[in-house]
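How it folds
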Amino acid sequence: MRILAFSDVHRDLEACAGLIEAAEEADLVLGAGDFATSHEGLTEVMDALAPLAAKSVFVPGNNESLTALRDTTTATVLHGETCTRNGVTIAGLGGGIPPLPPLPWGSWDLTEEEAETALAGIGSADILVLHSPPKGVADVIDGKGSVGSVALRDAIERIQPRLVVCGHIHDCWGRSGTIGTSSVNNLGPAPTWFEL
């Protein structure tokens, strides 16, 4: 299966056009959140990405809510759930984890406890689509250090998906690492390819 994955387009319609063009070769498209910016522009981005919806699985970022994303796309949207595509099980969880400091626009965040509860029922998955990175992998902000989620790291250790994709931490776009046998990849808005 040829997989195109991305995160954090943040209203960049030029980036969306590049994803549409690249996705002609994809069997599956994964979007790891932050399609909007501060809850603005989500409809325009989902309209731009509509040609990909039938083969896409998305999670919300912290710049849009779960409800808003589900209301603006026909793509599969996961949050503490799984779906199956071509025999491959995909699990997903969106939002900023752990919560960001209070922002005037209201970041859509989950506590570590909420993330742990949301993923508790997922026993196995081949792919895990997250918005936030796990603690210790592709999660470093310059001047602040490692800011990833302990709950997400624990879930990866337990589930051991073959592939984990995330975004959220812009300083780490393009970085990857492993947790056990799981490949963890912080994406960014450019097309990133995987074979599974």
Residues 7 and 188 are 5 Å apart (CA to CA). The mean pLDDT is 97.
